[in-house]
């Protein structure tokens, strides 16, 4: 069990539609996950670690790199925490992710600081929390695999001039 995240490619019109009726996010998410394919990306419970790497260890929601913690629109009324970014922000995120290298992300990877961040911030447990930090290198490799998935869906959304929807939920 963990807190997982899925990322969906959506049109700006779908975002506006869900804004008018947030419960539609649940149906859209369920349909896209069931369909699978390239329009949905499952980040399992590695999204917290990815956020840490993308924001340089900050608890920032500043867009575009803080997108795994918040977006331009939050949908209150959806079953789970759900938010979205419109196509221009997806484009900016794609540009930011395209230039990041594994070396850039490794420079931000600090298991002791992730577990004991200080300043009243919550610890970050990327993925297999029971293996962290003892197997920190294996966890980093997993993070890079999930980063590749995230980058691919973001680049695809930007190429299609679409936005992105993020949903965080308990995964049993």
Summarize the structure in words.
The longest helix is centred in the last third of the chain and has 24 residues, at 136-159. A hairpin with a 7-residue loop joins strand 3 (73-74) and strand 4 (82-85). The protein has a single domain, classed as YfbM-like super family (Hypothetical protein yfbM fold, 3-Layer(aba) Sandwich), CATH 3.40.1760.10. The radius of gyration is 15 Å and the shape is globular. The protein has seven helices and five strands; from the N terminus they run βααβαββααααβ. It has 172 residues and is of the alpha+beta class. The protein starts with a strand and ends with a strand.
The CATH architecture designation is 3-Layer(aba) Sandwich
Shape: globular
So how many helices? 7
- Describe the largest sheet: 5 strands, antiparallel
Radius of gyration: 15 Å
Number of domains: 1
- Topology order in helix (H) and strand (E) letters: EHHEHEEHHHHE
CATH level-1 class = Alpha Beta
Secondary structure class reads alpha+beta
Which regions have little confidence, pLDDT < 50, spanning 5+ residues?
A: none
Query: Portion of residues in helices?
Result: 40-55%
**What is the CATH topology classification name?**
Hypothetical protein yfbM fold
What is the residue-mean pLDDT, rounded to a whole number?
A: 89
Terminal Cα span: 5 Å
Number of strands: 5
CATH superfamily: YfbM-like super family
DSSP strand (E) fraction?
Answer: 15-25%
């Amino acid at each position: 069990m963990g807190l997982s995240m899925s990322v969906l490619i959506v049109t700006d019109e779908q975002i506006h539609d869900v804004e008018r009726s947030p419960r539609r996010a649940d149906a859209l998410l369920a349909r896209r996950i069931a369909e699978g394919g390239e329009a949905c990306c499952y980040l399992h419970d590695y999204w917290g670690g990815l956020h840490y790497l993308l924001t340089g260890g900050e608890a920032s929601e500043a867009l575009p790199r803080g997108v795994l913690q918040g977006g331009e629109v939050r949908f209150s009324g959806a079953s789970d925490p759900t938010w979205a970014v419109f196509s221009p922000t997806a484009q900016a995120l794609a540009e930011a992710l395209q230039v990041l290298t594994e070396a850039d992300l490794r420079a931000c990877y600090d298991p002791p600081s992730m577990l004991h961040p200080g300043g009243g911030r919550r610890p970050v447990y990327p993925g297999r929390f029971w293996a962290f930090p003892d197997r920190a290198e294996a966890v980093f490799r997993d993070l890079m695999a999930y980063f590749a998935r995230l980058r691919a869906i973001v680049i695809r959304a930007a190429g299609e001039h679409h936005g992105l929807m993020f949903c965080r939920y308990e995964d049993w």
